[in-house]
Amino acid sequence: MLQIDRLSHSFKNGSEVTAVLRDISFRVHKGQMVALLGSSGSGKSTLLHLMAGLMKPTEGDILIAGHNIVSMSENRLAEFRRHHIGFIFQAYELLANLTVRENIELPLVFQSVQPSVRRKKALALLEQVGIPEKAELFPSQLSGGQQQRVSIARSLITEPSVIFADEPTGNLDTRTEEEILAILKELNKALDTTFVIVTHEREVAAQTEHILSLRDGYLITERQGFAEASLTGGPAIAIT
Ligand code: ADP
Ligand code: MG
């Protein structure tokens, strides 16, 4: 479902070049829920943004459902992202002037899906994330945990191949964090959607099936906390 091959990325500021990701390869299979664990500054968000097609890597390939997003044209990539990629942000990023239901429907508005069809799907997802009664409220009338539930529903409405979540529980207290992780796990099982969850917290990563650990831009793979391999490079590591 997701294949990363020899990916490297550097940021340039004038003559200064900062290498952030170094020769990273791995695979995530359909329906897996994987954590990308690393301390602040280790390159997690950069890797997630590259995989979501928000920027182009300096080197390497990113295949999603068999399509190489690195070699796609801008237009094709924008279209591909609308159909295949979901994103969940730490700060929810809901639109304040739209209701909960309208926020969830929004990705389908961009696909010109009929209002009645959009509405039905949005309400079904709202039910799945456990807050069906909030449909006609505005984001400011919801708690942080409830807003993240809305954001999760929005990410799922296009039935994407993979969902990337950047520190999805980073703004939440421990109890709410547990609730959100439970919802993500449930949806992963029920819908067979592939999830990549970025976190700097080992307890959050331990909730997932597999852990990919980043340190200073290098990938160190782990499986349920057992260190398996050290530096990557060479063939992709299949996580099974
Ligand atoms: P994480 O999400 O793991 O905290 P990031 O991917 O945000 O890490 O950042 C990794 C490194 O890349 C950091 O040293 C950061 O300063 C640097 N970095 C991130 N974005 C940029 C940018 N646009 N320009 C220059 N350096 C950047
Ligand atoms: Mg980050």
Report on this structure:
This protein is α/β, with parallel strands linked by helices and 240 residues long. The chain has seven helices and eleven strands. The strands form two sheets. The protein has a seven-stranded mixed sheet with strand order 6-7-8-3-9-10-11, sandwiched between helices. Helix 3 (100-109) packs parallel to helix 5 (144-156), helix 4 packs across helix 5 (144-156) and helix 5 (144-156) packs parallel to helix 6. The longest helix is centred in the C-terminal third of the chain and has 18 residues, at 174-191. It is globular and about 50 Å long. The chain starts with a strand and ends in a 13-residue tail after the last strand. The structure holds adenosine-5'-diphosphate and magnesium ion.
Task: Report a brief summary of the structure.
This protein is of the alpha/beta class and 240 residues long.
CATH class: Alpha Beta
Arrangement of strands in the largest sheet = 6-7-8-3-9-10-11
SS element count, helices: 7
The profile of the biggest β sheet is: 7 strands, mixed
Helix % is 25-40%
Q: How many domains would you count in the coordinates?
A: 1
Strand content: 25-35%
Small molecules in complex: adenosine-5'-diphosphate, magnesium ion
Run of helices and strands:
EEEHEEHEHHHEHEHEEE
Structural class: alpha/beta
Walk me through the topology.
Layout (H helix, E strand, L loop, with lengths): L1 E12 L2 E13 L4 E5 L6 H8 L7 E6 L2 E2 L5 H11 E4 L11 H10 L5 H14 L15 H13 L5 E5 L7 H18 L2 E6 L2 H4 L4 E6 L2 E6 L2 E2 L13
Parallel strand pairs: 3-8, 3-9, 6-7, 7-8
Antiparallel strand pairs: 1-2, 1-4, 4-5, 9-10, 10-11
The protein binds adenosine-5'-diphosphate and magnesium ion (MG).
The site of magnesium ion has 2 residues, from helix 1.
